[in-house]
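Fold it.
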Amino acid sequence: MRVVIAEDNALLREGLVLLLTSGGHEVAAVASSGPDVLPALLEHRPDAAVLDVRLPPGFRDEGLRAAIAARRELPGLPVLVLSQYVEETYAAELVAGGAAGVGYLLKDRVGRVEEFLEALDRVAAGGTALDPEVVSQLIASRNDPLSALTPREREVLGLMAQGLDNATIATTLFITERSVSKHIGSIFTKLGLPHTDSGHRRVLAVLAYLNS
């Protein structure tokens, strides 16, 4: 997999390069400031981009805005965004622009090597990888009818939005797959979403609702 990295912290940037190359991936380019991100992505057209949210010169949301711009120029470009915080507005815009191949992880996840690489692989394959905290804040921004969901249904919804399948959700919550299916059916009913057997389509449906 060819990857472009955008990260201003030299230690983290080099750590990401080492992590990806040791995992068999090729780092096509690295960028350390916001204005450099989009040109690098357009030039190298990577299989995936790993972008920090806050980059020079403003250290606000340059990386996230570059990710949104890149997906406009290169539709379907897989983007995995890293941040210390949840930038709710731009996170919502990123997934609303088409959730296929989108990830948003908090930076402490990068320390969990297997989780990070699995998330990158999932995003590169067109899947979704959202940090539970990101999902929680997007959900919190919608008051009704999400308020009708039970605590367990909210847990299941959060795991669904991360892109996990029924078996993984069941293992995570220590319940049966049949129980997971029942919870998902209840969630879809309460949110007025279509029932579907495709894990990816159901993630898109949930994210579309959260950002509508």
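The first helix runs from residue 10 to 22.
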